[in-house]
Amino acid sequence: MVRPTSVRVSGVTVTVDEARLEATATPPRIPAWRWCLRAALIIAVGVVLVFALRGRVPDPAAVLDVAADADPRWAILAVLAQMLSQVMFAHQQRRLLAAFTVDVSMPRALAITYSRSAISMALPAGSAVSAAFAVQQYRRRGATAATAATIMVLSGVASIVGLVLLYAAGLLATASAEHAILAGSATIAVTGGALAWSITRAGSAAPRPAAPRPETRWPAANKVLEHIRATAHRARTVPARHWAATIAFAASNWLLDLACLAAVARACHLSLGYTELAGVYLAVQIVRQFPVTPGGIGLIETSLLTGLVAAGAPQTNAAAVVLGYRLISFWLILPIGLATYLALRRPPNPQR
Questions:
Q1: Mean of per-residue pLDDT scores for the chain
Q2: 256-285 pLDDT, tens per residue?
Q3: Are the C-beta atoms of 247 and 259 separated by less than 8 Å?
Q4: How far is CA 208 from CA 26, 227, 239, 307, in A?
């Protein structure tokens, strides 16, 4: 699955840097102090993992026995769910591109999705490099630099909204009737308000000349604020139907990734209900937003294993579930992403 891309505001500088836009997915030059800080964080995470997993890691032979006894039918469903999750993210990108009249075929959008996933998982600066790669691919299909950067930002926003809707659904499923009504009303109000704001802005007249804005003492801050204003203005031109479809695809992306985990759990005969499993999954997503290690290696496995055991799952079965889920949602995507990345490096076919 494609996790939601964390696009920093400074990344919008691609709109004015043509050389960077044409570069392939090459990791940006990172200062030495940042490498030292990252190394220190990884060491700290390693120490935490050792203490967190102490006494929780079962015998590897027992885990392999559970994996060998897994139900192949549920395992196949887990792979299909993860593949459909990638398809939903590709549709999410295509819908935003279509809102800006940029046509990208579904095969190419899916190839970009797999390539971005592999890049973000494999590289230390994966999120930034993945974003730069996507911008480059969108520009090859006719998007302007400003449009490509805006789509990256809006896609990240849609992914966050989709995850929030998934959290809201979890609250509705576990809360009492009174709290469920309040949570549902709040979710509908927030979503409806956002769509109404989009409709109002999209249907307004041509933009009026911007009033002079006072300059601050920091030119860099002025540039960042100007990028934010420009992105917000372009976001207001997206029709409500595209916003609704984009958010629906984003929520489906998360939901199918959860379905992958649930299918692996059933394959490994995990004795947890879907409500408990969804709660553990949603809790792990908070940890996933901190890209301390490439692809969350170590962090996600530890968090997921700890959550499953804390929810009452046997350690052996829980470890087998974590192993199977990460094999499908992480390691299986890497070779596919490498293949699609190499295919995308070829000159685009104008007929596609």
A1: 75
A2: 999 999 999 999 999 888 888 988 998 888
A3: no
A4: 40, 18, 19, 52
Q: Quickly count: other Cβ atoms within 10 Å of residue 72's Cβ.
A: 8
| Cβ(85)–Cβ(260) below 8 Å | yes
Tokens (6 digits) for 340: 């699609």
Contact between 252 and 204 (Cβ < 8 Å): no
Instruction: State the pLDDT confidence band at 46, using cuts at 50, 70 and 90.
Output: low
Cβ neighbours of residue 106 closer than 8 Å, sequence gap 6 or more: 90, 91, 94
CA-nearest of 134, 97, 136 to 117 is 134
| Residue count (the chain) | 352
**Alpha-carbon radius of gyration of the chain:** 22
What pLDDT score does 18 carry? 42
* Cα separation, 308 vs 323, whole angstroms: 13
Which is nearest to 270 in space by CA: 27, 78, 29, 1? 78
CA-to-CA distance for 4 and 257, rounded, in angstroms?
Answer: 12
For the record, the structure tokens of 149 come out as 């950067």
Interior angle at CA 93, CA 152 and CA 347, nearest 5: 90
**Contact call for residues 249 and 95 (beta carbons, < 8 A):** yes
Quote the tokens at residue 218. Answer: 């920091």
Binned at pLDDT 50, 70 and 90, residue 48 comes out as: low
The answer to which of 65-79, 80-94, 144-158, 224-238 has the lowest mean pLDDT is 224-238
List the one residue out of 13, 9, 248, 26 whose CA is nearest residue 130: 26
Domain extents for the chain? Answer: 58-207+217-344
Whole-model pTM: value is: 0.73
Which CA distances in Å does 84 have to 77, 165, 250, 254? Answer: 10, 19, 12, 10
Q: Could you tell me where the DSSP H helices lie in the chain? A: 18-22, 32-53, 60-68, 72-99, 106-122, 126-140, 145-174, 177-202, 219-235, 240-267, 274-288, 299-310, 315-326, 333-344
Q: What is the spatial distance between Cα 163 and Cα 154, in angstroms, rounded to a whole number?
A: 14
